[in-house]
Amino acid sequence: MTQGGSSGRPVRVAVDAMGGDEGLLAAVEGAALLSTEERPVQVLLVGDEAQLALALARQRYDPTWLQIVHAPDFVRQEEKPAEALDARPGVSVLRAAQLVAEGRADALVSAGNTGALVLAASRQFQRLPGIRRCALASVYPTEQRHGERGDPFALMLDVGATLTASAEDLVGFAVMGSAYARIISENASPKVALLSNGSEPSKGTAAIVAAHEVLAGLPGLNFAGNVEGLDIPRGTVDVIVTEGFLGNVVLKMLEGVSEVVVDLAKDAYARKFLYRMGLTMLSQGLRQLRTMTDWKQYGGAPLLGLDRVVIKAHGRSNARAMRNAIKVAAKAVDRDLTGQIRAGMGPVTR
Amino acid sequence: MTQGGSSGRPVRVAVDAMGGDEGLLAAVEGAALLSTEERPVQVLLVGDEAQLALALARQRYDPTWLQIVHAPDFVRQEEKPAEALDARPGVSVLRAAQLVAEGRADALVSAGNTGALVLAASRQFQRLPGIRRCALASVYPTEQRHGERGDPFALMLDVGATLTASAEDLVGFAVMGSAYARIISENASPKVALLSNGSEPSKGTAAIVAAHEVLAGLPGLNFAGNVEGLDIPRGTVDVIVTEGFLGNVVLKMLEGVSEVVVDLAKDAYARKFLYRMGLTMLSQGLRQLRTMTDWKQYGGAPLLGLDRVVIKAHGRSNARAMRNAIKVAAKAVDRDLTGQIRAGMGPVTR
Questions:
Q1: pLDDT value of residue A342
Q2: How far is A44 from chain B (nearest CA, A)?
Q3: Domains of chain A
Q4: Which of B49, B81, B102, B278 could bridge B70 with an S-S bond, Cβ 3.0-4.6 Å?
């Protein structure tokens, strides 16, 4: 059983069950799946009570670990977050955040509208000391492996909670990314670097150069200096720190490259018998590639910088992806992610 | 024979023959190669006279089209551009730029230190009306084809002449990129877009939003709005406009992805007989991939915004790549690239 940090009770995760591309089904199935496993997590499914009860009735699950909390409405993917939250305070993402703020749950998970999740969390939770701006972090596949477990994913942040970032913001991102990689990827001393246009400390914008100087002297951080675009797919470091605008472009570009590679393989398959034979012989390797290109569906992206654990599951999450996101949230609570970030920020704020 | 714009005489290209990774050999061989072709270009090889004469003596070439201009020194790849140019005014890149400024040549090509080329050109040439900052543009391979010729490359700028860019800078980049794609890729109406974190006109930094508004109303430009990271490898548009810091990261990342794909294929080849068979059957397709991953060696990157044509050839350029860069420079002179940019900037500066 997963333990709730210091208290010893099971971790409780509030799941915004509405608003993902798959509707409430992925959340319900994912939570049901998890309830029957060896190490379950207490899940509060937040959404339309009648719909949730109906969907749940069709699942095999252990009712000890599942509870429904009613929310009459939800934010759609295409809605403007601030307008939606202001106009409809009963939306599921806000209700789920409130449950966490009230201490009825320890962490928040949602596959819905990203902006609405960030806004709801920012309104309900407090920023950690020294953190001026939150960051969304995302794992992505790399050529090199990471940490003792040989994890094929590196972490990048911010990937879209901000646009530009000051030196202070970048320092906070570095500390938060390091804590997350330590706890979730179980990488004892993750290498952290700033994304720049050259490896020398003098390279990059004024914010990057200033952040470099602070990070180079920060105790408890395995700072590897600057990395360049080349290092992103290589995976030279474990955590890459950048402003949200750039992180967003880079991450979407990686998605685009994956899709193009899959397209080209499909195209080759259709074009020529010899190619078809060749691809069949490579199928085991290509399956591996496939797994890598589907990476966005695994786990979820943490929103870092608040005093509560928040995980954004991908909009296209299926049941397994939702289960994984809930497990990641529970693990982050269990191993005290927010406490680790607090500790990491100590030398910065002092 | 290539004609020199309005004057009717052959185009003359000053080539900084030193400072590429291959030393002067690539430049000499490339120029020699071109001198024996059907449509030669007048080339001034700038560098150490004795070394150049020695290297040239070993080539087959037509002396009508080749001339050596002595420069006693050159800027190394690892040198700081400003320091080098200030301390040693006899360096080849500066001498070559002077030949162009003096009207003895029409265009400048170099495979040497990028910063030194940008600085030498900026000191010797004038910025075109309305252009506050120059941009380096680079082609890169995409899934979709471009223009009437089905070109597999799209253009991106700036990729490193600047760090950040104002709205005015981005507008200038869009006009310059469009002119270059029209002239060099022979794409009659290239689609130009701003790189942002969403397709809506409201998305992106303040500079991007402001540039979007100007570009949407600019006559003579086929403006396609904003594109996202996903669109970069897809090649949804023909010209992508962004600030230099981001362009640098994106371009190096594309290089990195290409290298990783080649590595993975090599690794698969070495690992398993079945994979080896499969890859052999795919070899024709993989050769195509190889060509695509070597794209940086073809042509060269134009430095846009000055009143003369400047082409930066890749540091690793071989003879064929240098020949191509010289031909691109001659074509840009021939079709009046600077005049086209001037015309495109007309509605902006008015």
A1: 96
A2: 33
A3: 12-126+306-336 (3.40.718.10), 146-295 (3.40.718.10)
A4: B49
